[in-house]
Amino acid sequence: ASLRLVLFGPPGAGKGTQAQLLTDCYHLAHVSSGDIFRHNLRQGTPLGLRAKEYMDRGELVPDEVVIDIMLDKILSIPSEDGFILDGFPRNTWQAEQLESALTAGSRAVDRVLHIDVAEEELARRLGGRFVCRECQAPYTHLGGAPAPNCERCNGELYQRDDDRPEAVQKRINVYREETTPVLAFYRDRGLLVDIPGQEAVDGVFKHIVEAL
Ligand code: AP5
């Protein structure tokens, strides 16, 4: 049967990294709220411009901007196909809206994978992160030399505006205050699995595969 997963965790936990490995391995649709906003921004849509104001400050984009676009995207996935949600839901209200929308379509989330990483490590990873402009694959690049091109598609690598140290700290605080309550929501439903996220990428992936 197809898997319907939520990848959950603080900024820099490795959600995007693991989502890519999971989609390659299990052929799931990858729905990343952050990627959708950044894509809209590149196209200059009103949604992208509105989201950017909040993203650059490290704050959550308001629920009314997020909810329709995310639910439309998720509900447009054929019901026999699996998916991975990355970056959504990010507060309890979004989790409730997702649950009712999926229930109405006779679907449900199978597992919520909580990638757990200490705050010092998050700041270290995001400070050295470069992302592909084309396929959004993330890389860590430390040191002064210019970042190379993407290993997957040869696209140009860039640093995100919200990976400045002040924005990173704000994102971590917002995660702690507004997003962690979602863990209890899914724990109560018996869906939450804690994944140790401090190991190397392959080690974390192994833990995820074991949990599925
Ligand atoms: P979003 O794009 O979702 O960003 P995020 O949650 O802050 O997560 P990141 O993309 O920063 O990190 P990640 O966990 O994917 O880590 P990655 O794999 O890249 O959201 C951005 C903004 O959009 C939000 O701040 C908000 O404003 C808005 N937004 C989005 N969704 C919203 C919603 N639902 N409601 C309201 N607002 C919303 O890895 C990080 C780095 O570490 C990379 O360099 C990677 O190479 C490296 N790395 C990964 N794994 C490992 C490992 N195991 N060991 C060492 N390095 C590793």
TrEMBL record:
GO MF annotation list: AMP kinase activity; ATP binding
UniProt keyword list: Kinase, Nucleotide-binding, Transferase
Record's keyword annotation contains Nucleotide-binding: yes
CDD domains found in the cross-reference section: ADK (cd01428)
Signal peptide: none
Pfam family name, one: ADK
Origin: domain of life: Eukaryota
SUPFAM superfamilies membership: P-loop containing nucleoside triphosphate hydrolases (SSF52540)
Stored HAMAP family: Adenylate_kinase_Adk (MF_00235)
PANTHER family attached to this UniProt entry: NUCLEOTIDE KINASE
Family assignment from sequence similarity: Belongs to the adenylate kinase family.
Name of this chain's protein: Adenylate kinase
Species this protein is from: Geodia barretti
